[in-house]
């Protein structure tokens, strides 16, 4: 089998590794539009169960990923000058560039041809293979050439966000909520190596415009944000993308869905097939899980159409609870004023419950008290898991 992957992100590279591990005779090529070593973003997160899954599939790359990752065990929230800590939230982060280097080197060592600075588009002679994988991101060119067939839908989020870095190294996953003259603005931050952290800033459109962030030049905007988040940054600067001039790269998160994930020998992978809001920290994990499922579907003698259909069904089913959690998480932040006036410990507790379909329908203080009581009883926890989704659907109908 000859496989051509458009896009050299974690999903495509990990798929190429798994396909070669299954059968070294496969001819696998990955085309990445960016030059080698150039990538967007700072660090990406994953969780302990994902590390175990990576080890099961390819111990070599899993060991390298773990070696270059940082681990945290606490969550910290700065809320209007007050700080609260939650212990026991274990997670990992790794620089996106380092992750791509690890996966790219591993793929090349197995005989995968990885080409950089190479954009492939429909009709390109390099897109000649038994299987063409569209791993070219949320704005996939290969997918959009057949958008009507795939039934692609992109729903933009309400809030604005910008993906930044900083030299302040956060040892815990950190949230910071600051009240400005134009409303609340907040950040998610986590270290991903010994020198840098990811620092994602989000706010409502009214706050974004009120602070002038829609028009300020990048350096001016970074200085303004640095002042607003002076407490958690402790004098360290915020860093924007160096390959962009003009205003800072503020975005609205687009939730991508598709009616179907394949067309003939073309299949969607990762963000080209689906996106989930960054606030649940699962994008890279879900993309690599796509790669695992697709490789598993291709391992055997099933016809290609059957294999691709099986891959899609498997992943759609697995994604249902994650996509629900992501929608509720995004909505929690879009309705931040509902929660931000609570005592810090209560707000942080509800921050951890933001995936709940019940939370939007119950007064926050009442939810907090009931949830504490439920957590103290195994029987009530089980009842909540069973009845919660049904009750939420009933309330949403009203």
Please describe what this structure looks like.
The protein is an alpha/beta fold. Strand 1, helix 1 (10-22) and strand 2 form a beta-alpha-beta unit. It has an 8-stranded mixed sheet with strand order 3-5-4-10-11-12-9-13. A 6-stranded mixed sheet has the order 6-2-1-7-16-15. The chain has a two-stranded antiparallel ribbon with strand order 8-14. Residues 390-398 have low confidence and may be disordered. It has helices at 10-22, 48-57, 59-67, 96-109, 141-144, 147-150, 205-210, 218-228, 230-233, 283-298, 304-334, 344-352, 364-375, 378-397; strands at residues 2-6, 27-31, 43-46, 70-79, 82-95, 113-115, 131-134, 153-156, 160-166, 173-180, 183-191, 197-203, 238-239, 254-257, 262-263, 266-268. Helix 1 (10-22) runs parallel beside helix 10 (283-298). Helix content is 41%, strand content 23%. The protein starts with a strand and ends with a helix. The protein is built from 14 helices and 16 strands.
Give the SSE layout.
Layout: E1 2-6, H1 10-22, E2 27-31, E3 43-46, H2 48-57, H3 59-67, E4 70-79, E5 82-95, H4 96-109, E6 113-115, E7 131-134, H5 141-144, H6 147-150, E8 153-156, E9 160-166, E10 173-180, E11 183-191, E12 197-203, H7 205-210, H8 218-228, H9 230-233, E13 238-239, E14 254-257, E15 262-263, E16 266-268, H10 283-298, H11 304-334, H12 344-352, H13 364-375, H14 378-397
